Amino acid sequence: MENGVGVERPLKLHMLPFLSPGHMIPLGDIAALFASHGQQVTIITTPSNAHFFDKSIASVDPFFLRLHIVDFPSQQVDLPDGVESLSSTTGPATMAKICKGANLLHEPIREFVEKDQPDYIIADCVYPWINDLTNKPHISTIAFTGFSLFTISLIESLRINRSYFDKNSSLSSFVDSNFPHSITFCATTPKQLIAFEERMLETIRKSKGLIVNNFAELDGEDCIKHYEKTMGYKAWHLGPACLIRKTFQEKSVRGNESVVSVHECLSWLNSKEENSVLYICFGSISHFSDKQLYEIASGIENSGYKFVWVVPEKNGKEDESEEQKEKWLPKGFEERNILNKKGFIIKGWAPQAMILSHTVVGAFMTHCGWNSIVEAISAGIPMITWPVHGEQFYNEKLITVVQGIGVEVGATEWSLHGFQEKEKVVSRHSIEKAVRRLMDNGDEAKEIRRRAQEFGRKATQAVQEGGSSNNNLLTLIGDLKRSRDRKLE
Ligand code: UDP
Fold first, then answer.
1. Which DSSP category does 401 fall into?
2. Which sign, positive or negative, has the C-alpha torsion 405, 409, 410, 412?
3. Closest ligand 1 atom, residue 388 Cα
4. At residue 273, what are phi and psi to the nearest 5 degrees?
5. Which of 61, 104, 347, 381 gets the most CB atoms within 10 Å of its CB?
């Protein structure tokens, strides 16, 4: 049988997500996807991160999907017990220790792979050692990226042209005649990020292939061809992985425990009209100063639109004094916007995938983390892009310049990580302007929304029977089985 699903012996896959919600959530969903197609998957993680996968596991027969826990080396990296994910960091020092601890997982995972040998390891390409987990010729590694293929291709193009950039240090525009799009950056990529990206490309290059949490139509055929030509092999678009969850209830239990109940959230959303609410969230590891939050509050209030705004836990503490609160929230903001139910502030982890899939959400102000983007697109929601760090500035270009499904807020300072204090503040005027552009239902807003909804339909089709991602998954399973069986012959 050609497409693998009917072939007798299931694939035995070990999946290794990096320790950050933006990496664990999509790979958990991809694990459930393989398991739901009859393959045997083991997700390898650490004790405090197990809850990220509980819900994926609960919905699938344990024969097909299970967890294997390896201890996080808390003592070795001098971290308190339980601090094992980038979303539980309190600053750059803790973040560095978590990354160090994650890298030290190499040895216990290698030992596990030795004892319990899979056919393939599917591992996050953020780990530089995924291709050294085994020296057994019958076990190969497939890299998983939490980025789009557009971004990976762009990074590769920038790498190829690096000497040109080094000579033009103030370079802000990027045109590579081989890259399918002409891209201009108003921000400079941090040097350490470039080094990280190049290590990641190296890891991808050494693996057997690349799994992408996106659908081919969004990356675009020209970009996929560019990737295959420059990197020399195929990438498999299997997403959007979030669409494996169908109901509000299933979507509400992704990642950390939500600080609001599904009921409270839905009853607020249900009371609003279609496309009338702006949703604002900057992911799980980006931190804004109180000054910046103040500008956001002022900008959304001045725009006059209804909103759901996810703010960090520290800004919403029960015991927060009035003096502390007024540093990030204009005086009387809650009386004017929250008590009358015009706005809803979620202080801590929000059920994002559920909120985005509600029809009242008309636009999403996002930091351009890849999962947030793909979740918005899956729901057909246009975006106000506000990249903060990492690869988010590349993602922004796919959304605004290439696909025309969002507008830029005007963020121009590219940080290495989400804790880096910004020198520039995006003003309330820029925020209000961007919100109006997408929410005022004028000609530009209508066209952007039309395009976003069209991509939403394509995303849904991609994961259905006969859709591009579904076909890729079946082909991949079949290819991997044949390749395994040939090696074992
Ligand atoms: N997320 C969520 N609730 C929150 C914050 C984040 O559900 O309050 C989820 C979001 O839906 C996405 C992931 O966490 O799946 C964040 O990944 P993304 O790539 O967007 O950004 P990162 O956090 O990695 O910067």
1. I
2. negative
3. 25
4. -90, 160
5. 381
Task: Determine the length of the chain.
Answer: 489
> Measured from the CA of 26, which atom of ligand 1 is nearest?
15
What phi and psi values does residue 256 have, to the nearest 5 degrees? -70, 170
State the catalytic residue, choosing from 23, 226, 237, 389.
23
The 383-385 sheet, strands edge to edge: 343-347, 306-311, 277-281, 361-366, 383-385, 406-408
Q: Which position has the token pair 């941090």?
A: 190
Q: Is residue 281 in contact with ligand 1, taking CB distance under 6 Å?
A: yes
Which atom of ligand 1 has the smallest separation from the CA of 310?
8
Q: Considering only CA atoms, which residue is closest to atom 18 of ligand 1?
A: 369
DSSP codes of every residue in 276-303: -EEEEE-TTT----HHHHHHHHHHHHHH
Kindly state the tokens that stand for 265. 């959230």
Choose among 43, 428, 209: nearest CA to 410.
428
The predicted pLDDT at position 163 comes to 66
Cα–Cα nearest to 467, from 147, 215, 212 = 215
Q: What is the pLDDT of residues 304-331, one digit of tens each?
A: 999 999 998 877 777 888 899 999 999 9
Which domains does the chain carry? Answer: 12-243+463-488 (3.40.50.2000), 255-460 (3.40.50.2000)
Q: What number of helices (H) and strands (E) belong to the chain?
A: 20, 15
Instruction: Give the pLDDT confidence of 250-286 residue by residue, as tens digits.
Output: 899 888 889 999 999 999 999 999 999 999 999 999 9
Is residue 45 within 8 Å of residue 152, measured between CB atoms? no
Query: 350: Cβ below 6 Å to ligand 1?
Result: yes
C-alpha to C-alpha distance for 381 and 46, rounded to whole angstroms = 34
- What's the gap in Å between 397 CA and the centre of ligand 1? 19
User: Cα of 302 to ligand 1 centre, how many Å?
Assistant: 27
Structure tokens at 142: 């497939």
Three-state SS across 68-124?
A: EECCCCCCCCCCCCCCCCHHHCCCHHHHHHHHHHHHCCHHHHHHHHHHCCCCEEEEE
Exposed, middle or buried by CB within 10 Å (0-12, 13-18, 19+), for 147?
A: buried
Active-site position among 14, 29, 119, 124: 124
Enumerate the H helices of 426-467 as residue ranges: 428-439, 443-463
